[in-house]
Amino acid sequence: MHPIPRLSIAHLPTPVEEMPRLTAALRSPRLLIKRDDLTGLALGGNKTRKLEFLVAEAQAGGARTLVSAGAVQSNHCRQTAAAAAKFGMACTLVLTGEMPPQPTGNLLLDYLFGAEVVFVSDRADRDRVLAETYAREEAAGHAPYLVPYGGSSPTGALAYAFALQELIQQGIAPNWVVFGTSSGGTHAGLVLGQRLFHFNGRILGISIDEPEEQIKAQVASLASLAAQRLGENLSFSAQDVLATDAYCRAGYGVLTDREREAVQLFARYEGILLDPVYTGRAAGGLIDLIRQGFFRPEETLLFWNTGGQPALFSEKYQTHLLGSL
Protein backbone atom coordinates (compact mmCIF):
# COMPACT_ATOMS: atom_id res chain seq x y z
CA MET A 1 0.00 0.00 0.00
CA HIS A 2 1.54 3.31 -1.09
CA PRO A 3 1.98 5.97 1.64
CA ILE A 4 -0.28 8.98 1.08
CA PRO A 5 0.45 12.46 2.50
CA ARG A 6 -1.90 13.21 5.39
CA LEU A 7 -2.24 15.99 7.93
CA SER A 8 -3.51 15.56 11.46
CA ILE A 9 -6.70 17.61 11.81
CA ALA A 10 -9.53 15.43 13.10
CA HIS A 11 -10.01 14.27 16.67
CA LEU A 12 -9.69 10.53 16.11
CA PRO A 13 -10.89 7.95 16.73
CA THR A 14 -14.41 9.25 16.94
CA PRO A 15 -16.51 7.40 19.52
CA VAL A 16 -19.09 4.72 18.87
CA GLU A 17 -22.08 4.89 21.20
CA GLU A 18 -25.00 2.63 21.98
CA MET A 19 -28.48 4.08 21.42
CA PRO A 20 -30.57 1.99 23.83
CA ARG A 21 -33.49 4.39 24.28
CA LEU A 22 -33.95 4.91 20.56
CA THR A 23 -33.60 1.16 20.01
CA ALA A 24 -36.42 0.57 22.49
CA ALA A 25 -38.61 3.36 21.11
CA LEU A 26 -38.37 1.99 17.56
CA ARG A 27 -38.48 -1.70 18.64
CA SER A 28 -35.36 -1.91 16.55
CA PRO A 29 -32.43 -4.27 16.29
CA ARG A 30 -29.45 -3.00 18.29
CA LEU A 31 -28.56 0.55 17.23
CA LEU A 32 -25.09 2.11 17.42
CA ILE A 33 -23.87 5.48 16.21
CA LYS A 34 -20.41 6.51 14.96
CA ARG A 35 -19.89 10.12 16.01
CA ASP A 36 -18.14 11.80 13.09
CA ASP A 37 -19.97 14.93 14.14
CA LEU A 38 -17.18 15.06 16.77
CA THR A 39 -14.19 15.29 14.42
CA GLY A 40 -13.43 18.69 15.93
CA LEU A 41 -12.75 21.08 13.07
CA ALA A 42 -15.33 23.89 12.90
CA LEU A 43 -17.98 21.91 14.83
CA GLY A 44 -16.97 18.66 13.16
CA GLY A 45 -18.30 16.50 10.36
CA ASN A 46 -17.12 13.92 7.86
CA LYS A 47 -15.31 16.36 5.57
CA THR A 48 -12.62 16.89 8.21
CA ARG A 49 -11.29 13.39 7.55
CA LYS A 50 -11.15 14.08 3.80
CA LEU A 51 -9.43 17.43 4.31
CA GLU A 52 -6.55 15.69 6.09
CA PHE A 53 -5.65 14.19 2.70
CA LEU A 54 -6.83 17.01 0.44
CA VAL A 55 -5.01 19.85 2.21
CA ALA A 56 -1.86 17.71 2.37
CA GLU A 57 -2.13 17.22 -1.39
CA ALA A 58 -2.69 20.97 -1.87
CA GLN A 59 0.35 21.85 0.24
CA ALA A 60 2.52 19.32 -1.60
CA GLY A 61 1.62 21.12 -4.84
CA GLY A 62 2.48 24.55 -3.44
CA ALA A 63 -1.11 25.79 -3.20
CA ARG A 64 -1.92 28.86 -1.13
CA THR A 65 -5.68 29.10 -1.77
CA LEU A 66 -8.43 26.51 -1.41
CA VAL A 67 -11.31 26.89 -3.87
CA SER A 68 -14.50 24.86 -3.55
CA ALA A 69 -18.25 24.95 -4.04
CA GLY A 70 -21.52 23.79 -2.54
CA ALA A 71 -24.90 24.99 -1.33
CA VAL A 72 -25.27 28.08 0.85
CA GLN A 73 -25.48 25.82 3.91
CA SER A 74 -22.69 23.49 2.76
CA ASN A 75 -21.01 21.58 5.59
CA HIS A 76 -18.15 20.78 3.25
CA CYS A 77 -17.50 24.44 2.49
CA ARG A 78 -17.62 25.38 6.18
CA GLN A 79 -14.97 22.78 7.02
CA THR A 80 -12.87 23.71 3.96
CA ALA A 81 -12.86 27.35 5.05
CA ALA A 82 -11.81 26.30 8.57
CA ALA A 83 -9.00 24.10 7.25
CA ALA A 84 -7.73 26.99 5.12
CA ALA A 85 -7.69 29.24 8.19
CA LYS A 86 -5.93 26.59 10.27
CA PHE A 87 -3.10 26.20 7.76
CA GLY A 88 -2.74 29.86 6.79
CA MET A 89 -4.32 29.56 3.36
CA ALA A 90 -6.88 31.73 1.62
CA CYS A 91 -10.29 30.28 0.73
CA THR A 92 -12.83 31.13 -1.96
CA LEU A 93 -16.22 29.43 -2.00
CA VAL A 94 -18.81 29.33 -4.78
CA LEU A 95 -22.19 28.83 -3.13
CA THR A 96 -25.46 28.05 -4.89
CA GLY A 97 -28.34 30.21 -3.68
CA GLU A 98 -29.20 33.82 -3.00
CA MET A 99 -27.22 35.93 -0.58
CA PRO A 100 -29.41 36.12 2.55
CA PRO A 101 -29.99 39.42 4.34
CA GLN A 102 -28.25 37.97 7.39
CA PRO A 103 -25.81 35.02 7.30
CA THR A 104 -26.77 32.14 9.59
CA GLY A 105 -25.65 28.55 10.16
CA ASN A 106 -22.78 27.36 7.99
CA LEU A 107 -22.66 30.59 5.97
CA LEU A 108 -22.02 32.63 9.09
CA LEU A 109 -19.10 30.33 9.90
CA ASP A 110 -17.71 30.64 6.35
CA TYR A 111 -17.39 34.37 6.90
CA LEU A 112 -15.92 33.94 10.38
CA PHE A 113 -13.16 31.77 8.91
CA GLY A 114 -12.35 34.53 6.43
CA ALA A 115 -13.59 32.91 3.23
CA GLU A 116 -14.45 34.94 0.16
CA VAL A 117 -17.93 33.91 -0.96
CA VAL A 118 -19.22 34.03 -4.54
CA PHE A 119 -22.96 33.43 -4.88
CA VAL A 120 -24.53 31.80 -7.94
CA SER A 121 -28.32 31.72 -8.08
CA ASP A 122 -28.75 28.79 -10.49
CA ARG A 123 -27.12 25.44 -9.74
CA ALA A 124 -26.81 24.85 -13.50
CA ASP A 125 -24.34 27.75 -13.61
CA ARG A 126 -22.24 26.60 -10.65
CA ASP A 127 -19.64 24.61 -12.59
CA ARG A 128 -19.05 27.53 -14.95
CA VAL A 129 -18.73 30.05 -12.14
CA LEU A 130 -16.44 27.70 -10.21
CA ALA A 131 -14.16 27.33 -13.23
CA GLU A 132 -14.12 31.10 -13.73
CA THR A 133 -13.36 31.66 -10.05
CA TYR A 134 -10.49 29.18 -10.12
CA ALA A 135 -9.08 30.81 -13.27
CA ARG A 136 -9.31 34.24 -11.64
CA GLU A 137 -7.40 33.05 -8.57
CA GLU A 138 -4.78 31.42 -10.78
CA ALA A 139 -4.35 34.56 -12.91
CA ALA A 140 -3.93 36.61 -9.75
CA GLY A 141 -1.04 34.37 -8.67
CA HIS A 142 -2.88 32.95 -5.66
CA ALA A 143 -1.83 29.34 -6.37
CA PRO A 144 -5.30 27.78 -6.03
CA TYR A 145 -6.14 24.15 -5.32
CA LEU A 146 -9.59 22.95 -6.34
CA VAL A 147 -11.26 20.99 -3.56
CA PRO A 148 -13.98 18.93 -5.31
CA TYR A 149 -17.63 19.02 -4.31
CA GLY A 150 -17.94 17.28 -0.97
CA GLY A 151 -14.23 16.50 -0.99
CA SER A 152 -15.18 13.60 -3.24
CA SER A 153 -12.07 12.83 -5.24
CA PRO A 154 -9.99 9.65 -5.14
CA THR A 155 -7.72 11.41 -2.63
CA GLY A 156 -10.62 12.52 -0.44
CA ALA A 157 -12.28 9.10 -0.59
CA LEU A 158 -9.22 7.49 1.00
CA ALA A 159 -10.21 9.06 4.30
CA TYR A 160 -13.20 6.77 4.73
CA ALA A 161 -11.30 3.64 3.81
CA PHE A 162 -9.13 4.37 6.84
CA ALA A 163 -12.20 5.41 8.84
CA LEU A 164 -13.59 1.92 8.35
CA GLN A 165 -10.26 0.50 9.49
CA GLU A 166 -10.63 2.70 12.58
CA LEU A 167 -14.07 1.24 13.26
CA ILE A 168 -12.70 -2.30 13.03
CA GLN A 169 -9.82 -1.41 15.37
CA GLN A 170 -12.39 -0.16 17.89
CA GLY A 171 -13.69 -3.73 18.06
CA ILE A 172 -16.99 -2.85 16.42
CA ALA A 173 -18.43 -5.31 13.90
CA PRO A 174 -21.96 -4.22 12.94
CA ASN A 175 -23.98 -6.15 10.39
CA TRP A 176 -24.94 -2.89 8.69
CA VAL A 177 -23.34 0.54 8.33
CA VAL A 178 -25.94 3.12 7.25
CA PHE A 179 -25.22 6.74 6.30
CA GLY A 180 -26.17 9.54 3.91
CA THR A 181 -24.59 9.54 0.45
CA SER A 182 -24.48 12.34 -2.10
CA SER A 183 -21.24 13.25 -3.88
CA GLY A 184 -19.97 9.74 -3.18
CA GLY A 185 -16.61 10.24 -1.46
CA THR A 186 -17.58 8.91 1.96
CA HIS A 187 -19.46 6.02 0.36
CA ALA A 188 -16.56 5.14 -1.96
CA GLY A 189 -14.09 5.16 0.90
CA LEU A 190 -16.22 2.83 2.99
CA VAL A 191 -16.66 0.45 0.05
CA LEU A 192 -12.90 0.45 -0.54
CA GLY A 193 -12.20 -0.04 3.16
CA GLN A 194 -14.65 -2.93 3.26
CA ARG A 195 -12.49 -4.84 0.81
CA LEU A 196 -9.08 -3.64 1.98
CA PHE A 197 -9.69 -4.48 5.64
CA HIS A 198 -12.00 -7.49 5.20
CA PHE A 199 -15.09 -5.98 6.80
CA ASN A 200 -17.95 -8.49 6.76
CA GLY A 201 -20.83 -6.08 7.34
CA ARG A 202 -22.88 -4.41 4.65
CA ILE A 203 -22.46 -0.75 3.64
CA LEU A 204 -25.76 1.00 2.79
CA GLY A 205 -25.85 4.57 1.52
CA ILE A 206 -29.14 6.46 1.68
CA SER A 207 -29.20 8.99 -1.12
CA ILE A 208 -29.66 12.61 -0.18
CA ASP A 209 -30.27 13.92 -3.67
CA GLU A 210 -29.07 11.67 -6.51
CA PRO A 211 -30.61 8.73 -8.42
CA GLU A 212 -29.55 5.32 -7.15
CA GLU A 213 -27.90 4.14 -10.34
CA GLN A 214 -25.91 7.37 -10.64
CA ILE A 215 -24.67 7.00 -7.08
CA LYS A 216 -23.65 3.39 -7.60
CA ALA A 217 -21.69 4.22 -10.75
CA GLN A 218 -20.00 7.25 -9.16
CA VAL A 219 -19.07 5.38 -5.98
CA ALA A 220 -17.67 2.41 -7.91
CA SER A 221 -15.53 4.71 -10.05
CA LEU A 222 -14.23 6.69 -7.06
CA ALA A 223 -13.46 3.52 -5.08
CA SER A 224 -11.50 2.07 -8.02
CA LEU A 225 -9.50 5.28 -8.50
CA ALA A 226 -8.84 5.57 -4.76
CA ALA A 227 -7.49 2.02 -4.75
CA GLN A 228 -5.10 3.00 -7.54
CA ARG A 229 -3.85 5.93 -5.42
CA LEU A 230 -2.86 3.36 -2.80
CA GLY A 231 -1.22 1.14 -5.40
CA GLU A 232 -3.82 -1.57 -4.84
CA ASN A 233 -5.00 -3.66 -7.79
CA LEU A 234 -8.69 -3.46 -6.95
CA SER A 235 -11.65 -2.51 -9.08
CA PHE A 236 -15.31 -1.98 -8.28
CA SER A 237 -18.53 -2.09 -10.26
CA ALA A 238 -21.98 -0.69 -9.53
CA GLN A 239 -23.00 -4.16 -8.34
CA ASP A 240 -20.53 -3.81 -5.46
CA VAL A 241 -22.36 -0.73 -4.11
CA LEU A 242 -25.51 -0.72 -1.95
CA ALA A 243 -27.63 2.44 -2.13
CA THR A 244 -31.26 3.51 -2.12
CA ASP A 245 -32.85 6.66 -3.51
CA ALA A 246 -36.23 5.96 -1.90
CA TYR A 247 -35.97 8.92 0.48
CA CYS A 248 -34.74 11.82 -1.66
CA ARG A 249 -37.72 12.44 -3.92
CA ALA A 250 -38.62 15.70 -2.17
CA GLY A 251 -35.37 17.25 -3.44
CA TYR A 252 -32.15 18.49 -1.93
CA GLY A 253 -32.57 20.38 1.32
CA VAL A 254 -36.37 20.07 1.35
CA LEU A 255 -37.48 19.28 4.89
CA THR A 256 -40.29 16.71 5.11
CA ASP A 257 -42.00 15.04 8.05
CA ARG A 258 -39.52 12.15 7.77
CA GLU A 259 -36.45 14.36 8.35
CA ARG A 260 -38.23 16.34 11.05
CA GLU A 261 -39.20 13.18 12.93
CA ALA A 262 -35.68 11.74 12.68
CA VAL A 263 -34.09 14.91 14.06
CA GLN A 264 -36.59 14.95 16.93
CA LEU A 265 -36.24 11.26 17.79
CA PHE A 266 -32.44 11.33 17.97
CA ALA A 267 -32.57 14.52 20.04
CA ARG A 268 -35.28 13.43 22.48
CA TYR A 269 -34.21 9.84 23.04
CA GLU A 270 -30.41 10.10 22.82
CA GLY A 271 -29.51 13.79 23.11
CA ILE A 272 -27.84 13.61 19.68
CA LEU A 273 -28.21 16.33 17.08
CA LEU A 274 -28.71 15.56 13.40
CA ASP A 275 -28.95 18.08 10.61
CA PRO A 276 -32.06 18.55 8.44
CA VAL A 277 -30.36 17.98 5.07
CA TYR A 278 -27.98 15.01 5.33
CA THR A 279 -28.05 13.04 8.57
CA GLY A 280 -31.73 13.84 9.13
CA ARG A 281 -32.63 12.39 5.74
CA ALA A 282 -30.36 9.36 6.17
CA ALA A 283 -31.72 8.67 9.66
CA GLY A 284 -35.26 9.09 8.37
CA GLY A 285 -34.55 6.39 5.81
CA LEU A 286 -33.00 4.14 8.44
CA ILE A 287 -36.05 4.54 10.68
CA ASP A 288 -38.39 3.68 7.82
CA LEU A 289 -36.37 0.56 6.95
CA ILE A 290 -36.50 -0.53 10.60
CA ARG A 291 -40.28 -0.10 10.63
CA GLN A 292 -40.57 -2.10 7.41
CA GLY A 293 -38.69 -5.00 9.02
CA PHE A 294 -35.87 -4.71 6.51
CA PHE A 295 -33.26 -5.72 9.13
CA ARG A 296 -33.26 -8.95 11.12
CA PRO A 297 -33.94 -8.65 14.86
CA GLU A 298 -30.58 -10.18 15.83
CA GLU A 299 -28.54 -7.77 13.69
CA THR A 300 -26.54 -4.74 14.85
CA LEU A 301 -27.03 -1.51 12.91
CA LEU A 302 -24.49 1.33 12.97
CA PHE A 303 -25.58 4.79 11.88
CA TRP A 304 -22.59 6.86 10.79
CA ASN A 305 -23.30 10.44 11.89
CA THR A 306 -21.48 12.58 9.32
CA GLY A 307 -22.29 15.86 11.08
CA GLY A 308 -23.83 19.05 9.72
CA GLN A 309 -25.47 20.47 12.85
CA PRO A 310 -24.82 24.17 12.00
CA ALA A 311 -27.64 23.89 9.44
CA LEU A 312 -30.03 23.51 12.38
CA PHE A 313 -29.38 27.19 13.06
CA SER A 314 -29.91 28.41 9.51
CA GLU A 315 -32.82 30.74 8.89
CA LYS A 316 -34.23 28.28 6.33
CA TYR A 317 -34.93 25.56 8.91
CA GLN A 318 -35.37 27.38 12.21
CA THR A 319 -39.16 27.61 12.01
CA HIS A 320 -39.73 24.15 10.51
CA LEU A 321 -37.97 21.72 12.85
CA LEU A 322 -40.42 21.66 15.72
CA GLY A 323 -43.80 20.00 15.70
CA SER A 324 -45.61 17.06 17.21
CA LEU A 325 -44.01 13.62 16.85
Which structural traits does this protein have?
single chain; 325 residues; alpha/beta; Rossmann fold; 2 domains; six-stranded mixed beta sheet; four-stranded parallel beta sheet; 11 helices; 10 strands; 41% helix; 16% strand
Shape: globular
- Termini separation: 49 Å
Overall tally of domains? 2
* Helix-strand pattern: EHEHEHEHEHEHEHEHEHHEH
Query: Within the largest sheet, what's the order of strands?
Result: 1-2-10-7-8-9
Helix content: 40-55%
Oligomer: single chain
Would you mind describing this structure in some detail?
The chain is of the alpha/beta class and 325 residues long. It folds into two domains: 16-45 and 152-318, Rossmann fold; 50-150, Rossmann fold (3-Layer(aba) Sandwich). It is 41% helix and 16% strand. The chain is built from eleven helices and ten strands. The chain has helices spanning 20-26, 47-60, 75-86, 105-112, 126-139, 154-169, 185-196, 212-229, 257-270, 279-292, 315-318, and strands spanning 16-18, 30-35, 65-71, 90-96, 116-120, 144-146, 176-181, 202-207, 242-244, 300-305. Strands 1-2-10-7-8-9 form a six-stranded mixed β-sheet, with helices on both faces. It has a four-stranded parallel β-sheet with strand order 5-4-3-6, with helices on both faces. Helix 7 (185-196) links the parallel strand 7 and strand 8. Helix 9 (257-270) packs across helix 10. The protein is globular and about 60 Å long. The termini are far apart. The model has no long low-confidence stretch (mean pLDDT 96).
